[in-house]
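Step 1: inspect the first sequence and its tokens.
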Amino acid sequence: MRPPTAIRPRVVVVRLVDRVDALLTRERLTVYPIVVIALFVVVWAISLRVTTALPDFLARWTAGRMLLDGQLSVLYDPAAQSGLQAAMGADRLSWFVSPPYVALLCAPFGALPYPVAAAIWTALNLGLLALSARMLSRIDPRLAPLGTTFGMVLAASCQPVLELVGAGQDTAMVLAALAAAAALLRTGRGTAAGAALAVGIVKPHLMVLVPIVLALASAWRAVASFLAASAVVGMATTLTFGWGVWWSWRDALVSPLYLTEVGQGQAWKNVSVNGLTHSLLAPLSTGVATAVWLVIAVVVLGVTARAVHWRATPAWLLLLLVVPLTTVLTSPHVMVYDLVIVLPGALLVIRSGDGGDRVVAALAYVLLFVAPLLHLVAQGVPAIAALGAPWVCLALAWMWWRAVRGPAIQGLRGAAPIP
């Protein structure tokens, strides 16, 4: 009797991917996101009764309030911030460590009672997300679903969007800046695109690659406009506050408290390679974890530089696809809510790829929701501490590879601007 032929591991993986992909029907992708959003609204409403609304926005409101109260000299002092927040009933510090010009931006909110300011901030975030979706849907046919009710609901159910809105973060401004700039570049308006990109410097670590990538793509008007607008913001901040505020900001970022509470304490929330290496290796050696991250970051940047045909790839595509995915892997600090900037690129990869790309995206979707639970389990059982690491970073690495090497970017090289 002839022995049965052994099934190769590759065949098993392909079959498994096909089965999972078959489950991603339009009906499920409509019903489940609605359930997720409904559950989020219920949990969020309950949490408002026991904790301060929008904990991350509280830091921004605090900075605006301190400026209005003339407390510039202690703007980044955690004790001063904590005292103001405790008077409002907050049980823990929400530390403002954004650049000083963000404090200036938040001053109008600091002039309002916190509940009113929080409500306006939430409406602003929702408006920016909706506006970004509409702009993106008109840039490329593959992004068209973002302009439909189905696409908006599916995107809104993603953990990065829910966390951004629920916590009161400001990454929606970065997404809006990228979307507006891509739309403007698509129509050949480079100067306006660069000015729009300057809005994104509310999170400068997410914008570092922007001028470099645009320069490699020879989008010189956009580069000049972006740098000029950013310089104006910097000079206006210096003229308003003086040079000392920049040193205070720097001191906060290199302080032991920041390195301990944010760099190490929130490593499991940091979805970049830095977060993954520190979650796995920092208990052994922080220096080794940092070194491994730097090596991987250099490799990612090197592969990107060699893989992308900069002059042949439309600048708008680089902004939506290459910049966000490369940034989230190589940046030292990328939290879950920051992944909203990856959504357009992920959609481009999914709609240009195959079932494997859809399955990886679905895996990332699920991993982001279960990450807090895995972290709690890992904390309770040190033997499986690695379980709580930000493993979604691997899914992001897959999308990055497909972005720089796959049809998502190769199919549009040399595309001409819309007349």
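Step 2: inspect the second sequence and its tokens, then contrast the two.
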Amino acid sequence: MALFIYKVKNDVGRTLVGIAEAENVKEVKRQFHVPDHFFISARAYNSRHLARIRLKLDDLLMFNNRLSCLVEAGVPILQALSILWRQSEHHDVQIIVSYMREELEEGASLWEVFSAFPAAFPPIYLALINVAEVGAGMANILKKLSQYLEDQKKFYSRLSRATMYPAFVLGFALLVLIGLFVFIVPTFEKVILRLHGELPFLSKVLFGISNLLCNPYFDGAVVICVIIALFLWRFLSKIEAYKYMLDYWKIKAPLLKNVLYPLSVARFTRSLSLLLGSGVPLVTAVEVCNTTINNSWLQKAVEDIRQNLLDGGSLYDAFKITKAFPFMVVEMIGIGETGGKLQQLLEMASAYLEEEADYALTKYLTYLEPLMIIAVGAIVLFVLLGIYLPIFSIQSVLRTL
């Protein structure tokens, strides 16, 4: 038996994509010889491609929310997947759901069918599905996952908010300045040189920069340098020592540490709170949560925590020994571990860290906006003075004649 990816149209004209196991295309076509589906095509599909299917966070959140609503309403899981297959607009989601339905009908467990898509479902998602299947309640777990994914969406929106506005302003200002230096300044330079005007030092610098940017050899050298830098960056990013050093710098840099550091720790503590609240063993929860951190320096610290727990230490002592987490978070973990409220205090620590990062981010953006306006204004003033100073000197010479 081989896998085939097929396309059909349903009774309302929507195109649906799915995966079926069959001997050949004719058998796939026979499976969809039903009144409410019109078969379009089928082709062989490599099973290894299943593991490479990725879902964006928004698509995963929508999938989980819909599945949560159906399960909470009492719809059996197979029927819920059939509904999701017909309702989804995303072809990758349709492929995933159709494969799950086929495998579940053949007796596979729910965790097994989810685990077939490691690129689509993060480890924390798979761990909680496993817990739900053991007996923690699928509806309850799916609701917790929806909240977790919403928090992750907020996490990424904070990071994008921190970088998108400055990047947009700087990119736009750079394009405007390149346009001035390449198209406007050379025109004025030709006019001024024809009038044999004496160039002030500021104008000489301006026209020198313009001539440099208009030089094809210089432009080619810049392009080559950028390409080399990109290749060098990709090469170095695969070296663990360099990646570790760069991630450590991200955590300790004066401006970044007040935003990226608390957000990264908050993501870890919130994930740990979710797993512990769902009944996942502590060591397993720490190991799974380590995959949610995008910083190798913090990952090394969490791995040390896991090893300390395996050696019989307490969670509080393990966090304290690493010295990688904020003092307040470590103390809250100690209080929670002693008082039996670890999950609640981890959630509180996450909220505190996110508020701290939001405050720092808002403060930076408040200072950054006027600074960027001043910087762009200063460059524009430099261009205008470089252009008009020789014109003014020519006018003064003409008046004396």
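Step 3: confirm your contrast with the notes below.
The longest helix spans residues 342-400. Strands lie at 2-10, 15-22, 37-44.
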